[in-house]
Amino acid sequence: xxxxxxxQSLMAEARIGFFDxxxxxxxxVNPRVIVHAKIMAVQADIPMDTKMLEAxxxxxxxxxxxxxx
Length: 69
Hints:
Order of helices and strands: HHHHH
Helix content: 55-70%
Oligomer: single chain
Radius of gyration: 11 Å
Mean pLDDT: 94
Number of strands: 0
Structural class: mainly alpha
């Protein structure tokens, strides 16, 4: 389940490591939401840190609406 997300991030050049995705799961962060948001940010050429997206998710923010499609 993590390998598919890692391959998506690799192909989209989002640069999220495999172990980072696994760590998100253990931190109770939905890795699918973070990976998709990071991919949208990369495609929109918006510099965004993965840790900032995770923090926003843990704070109860809407990560999907943070990055414009």
